Structures are given as C-alpha cells and as structure tokens.
Amino acid sequence: MPKVVSRSAVSSSTDAQPTASSEAALRVYYCMCGEFVLVIDKSLTSLPRRKTDNAIIVRAQDSNDGKARVFKLNAKPIEPILIEREGGHEHQYRFQCSRCSLTIGYQTSPPPVKSAPFLYILSGALSQVQGQVPQDAFDGENDV
Ligand SMILES: [Zn+2]
C-alpha cells in the first residue's frame, strides 16, 4: 500500500490575500520597472521552456495536448521581427511594457494576444514582486 502523504499546509502567513478567493491561485507578474504586466493561473517557473531561446511557454489555446492557461497580458504589441531558426524563419510578434518599452514576450501570429497557440515570455523579463515563495518551489521534496 502506498503511503498517502497529505501535504501539510504551508504557512498562510501574514501576506495580504488577493481580492476574490476564487482568484487566489492567480499570480501577478511585473516588469522590472514595476508595471503590472501579467496575471496567470500558474507560476511561470513551473511552465516549460523553449529549447531555442529559453522563453517560457504559456499555452494560449486549448488543444489535444492540454488546456490553455488562464492569463491576461498587459503589454503593447510592436512591430514583428523575423528570427532565423534552424530549418526556417519565425515571425515574432512582440509585446513590450507599456511604460518602459522593455520587450516582455512574443507570439508567432499577429495580435491580439492568444491568436497563436502559445505566448512566449522572455526569460527573466518578469518578476513576481510580492516576495512570496512559489508554491511549486518544493515540488518533489515529499517524494522520498
Ligand atoms: Zn516596464
């Protein structure tokens, strides 16, 4: 019989709770300049990354491989660029911070956001200012 270990509640410390309890699982990410950029239902650190540029992959459309993430991107679309990839080219329709113009991420079809199967977030572009440890930080620790 496998032993069932119920994960004990991790400190629901003194952090202010997000408004509606139904949105408690949402995470908010900010640009380096402090501008609110992304709210999403899963920690970015737990999402897969592209092999090409290490960008974080956010599924934007339902498919056979999985359901789309729930997210909202607050960034402004800019001119697409053409990237050379092995075996071809790739259009990147980029989004940048509306305050400081830092490039946040891109998708492979023209705006609006979610018109492509995936949204890619550039590695290191966003931070979770709230200073809380991601819930998945200790995944695997209990598998012993
Ligand atoms: Zn910014």
Automatic annotation (TrEMBL):
Question: Example GO biological process term?
Answer: endoplasmic reticulum membrane organization
Domain named STEEP1: residues: 21-135
Q: Which GO terms describe its cellular component?
A: cytoplasm
| Top-level lineage group | Eukaryota
**Similarity comment: family membership:** Belongs to the STEEP1 family.
UniProt name for this protein: STEEP1 domain-containing protein
According to its UniProt entry, this protein's organism is Coprinellus micaceus (Glistening ink-cap mushroom)
